[in-house]
Design brief:
There is one protein chain. This protein is of the alpha/beta class. It has two domains: 1-115 and 327-362, Rossmann fold, CATH 3.40.50; 134-307, Rossmann fold, CATH 3.40.50. It is 43% helix and 9% strand. It contains 14 helices and nine strands. The chain has helices at 30-42, 47-53, 57-60, 79-91, 94-102, 136-155, 176-187, 206-213, 233-250, 256-259, 267-273, 299-305, 307-326, 333-347; strands spanning 62-65, 68-71, 129-130, 133-134, 168-172, 197-201, 221-226, 260-263, 280-281. It has a five-stranded parallel β-sheet, sandwiched between helices. The chain has a two-stranded antiparallel ribbon with strand order 1-2. α7 (176-187) links the parallel β5 (168-172) and β6 (197-201). α1 runs antiparallel to α4 (79-91), α7 (176-187) packs parallel to α12 (299-305) and α12 packs across α13 (307-326). The chain starts with 29 loop residues before the first helix and ends in a 15-residue tail after the last helix.
Length: 362
């Protein structure tokens, strides 16, 4: 039996997104029932049988876009399954919802916010408005400041309190402020500066921070504190411990401004901590944590691989953004992957997903 949840249909157009009166349960639609009937028919089929029934399956159920190849022929589905899933997407008004996101509508209905991570990789001349404000110039102002700072660290121009260049960078955050940058620095290690030691701390257990700092020299260590509110308990607990370690080692609270920078939206709390707000890199409430690594949260990534490589990464994100926005669902990689997720979760009752990269860096 499928695992069912509340699903609401929103109006098709971005302009009508805020009409909260138009709601209906997606599970009550004929398209959902058709998928349920189809699942009941094929649920017992083995993948070997599906390939035997359609020798061209590998060609039919694979596509390429934006330099990526997606082969979904090894999933427990058929071409008919995909047709029914695309029908469901149409019934849900998916194209309108996509456009609503790009238009800056508040599609995050639980927090009444826009979902505009796509603005983080928009070109300088783009216009993307959130609540009537073009946010692209704000994004590029922060990117430019990140680039300048990263180059200073990488070149040795940024000095610690005792005049020594930085050799180690410790990112302190939690959730998206830790997992994304840590993943990207690992995945992109082939492009990294090998003489810069990048480390990440998120566990509030003091042993994590203690182990991270055990072999580091406070004179050559830089801390990046990532917290949108600069009030996250876990992050601030580790940040205060790191601050105490630095002051005890170097003998002065004045050392903090040379060894700590912040990624935050709360300047007064950053200043109270002892960080110069000139070294605070802003991000915004329309950036969801899990999508934040290409915002200022990615400062550690930029220091590791350099501003030029970081912007190449943003360009790759932008290629997928554009593909997602303009490509019809049947040729749209993110849409296809999302629909397959719905198929497994809602109809097979799957509760976990295995991601098995063959690349050591991933």
């Amino acid at each position: 039996m499928p695992v069912t949840r509340d699903r609401t249909l929103r109006p098709e157009s971005a302009q009508a997104w805020d009409d909260r009166q138009v709601n209906s349960d997606i599970t009550d639609t004929p398209q959902w029932q058709a998928l349920q009937d189809h699942h009941d028919t094929i649920a017992g089929s083995h993948l070997r049988e599906m390939f035997a029934a359609d020798p061209q399956r590998g060609t039919k159920l694979s596509i390429s876009a934006a330099g990526l190849f997606l082969d979904y022929s090894k999933h427990r589905l058929t071409a008919e399954t995909m047709d029914l899933l695309f029908d469901l997407a149409e019934a849900a008004g998916l194209p309108g919802r996509i456009e609503a996101m790009f238009a800056g509508e508040h599609i995050n209905v639980t927090e009444d916010r826009a979902v505009m991570h796509v603005a983080l990789r928009a070109p300088r001349d783009a216009v993307i408005e959130v609540d009537g404000v073009n946010v692209v110039p704000l994004v590029h102002d922060v990117l430019d400041r990140m680039s300048e700072f990263s180059e200073r660290v990488r070149s040795g121009d940024w000095k610690g309190f005792t005049g020594k260049a930085i050799k180690a960078v410790v990112n302190i955050g939690i959730g998206g402020s830790d997992l994304g940058p840590a993943m990207a620095c690992s995945a992109l290690a082939g492009y990294a500066r090998r003489d810069l030691d990048m480390r990440f701390v998120s566990n509030v257990d003091g042993d994590d921070l203690a182990e991270t700092l055990a072999d580091l020299d406070p004179e050559t260590t830089l801390f990046i504190i990532c917290s949108k509110t600069f009030g996250t308990v876990e992050t601030l607990t580790n940040a205060r411990s790191a601050r105490a370690w630095l002051i005890e080692s170097l003998g002065s609270e004045e050392a903090v401004s040379s060894h700590f920078v912040a990624v935050s939206a709360h300047a007064s709390r950053v200043a109270d901590f002892g960080i110069d707000t000139a070294n605070m890199f802003e991000f915004w409430d329309w950036v969801g944590g899990r999508y934040s690594m290409d915002s200022a949260v990615g400062l550690s990534i930029m220091i590791s691989i350099g501003p030029d490589r970081f912007r190449e990464m943003l360009s790759g994100f932008r290629s997928i953004d554009e593909h997602f926005r303009v490509t019809p669902p049947r040729r749209n990689l993110p849409v296809i992957m999302g629909l397959i997720g719905i198929w497994y979760i809602e109809f097979f009752g799957a509760q976990s997903q295995a991601i098995l990269p063959y690349s050591r860096y991933l």
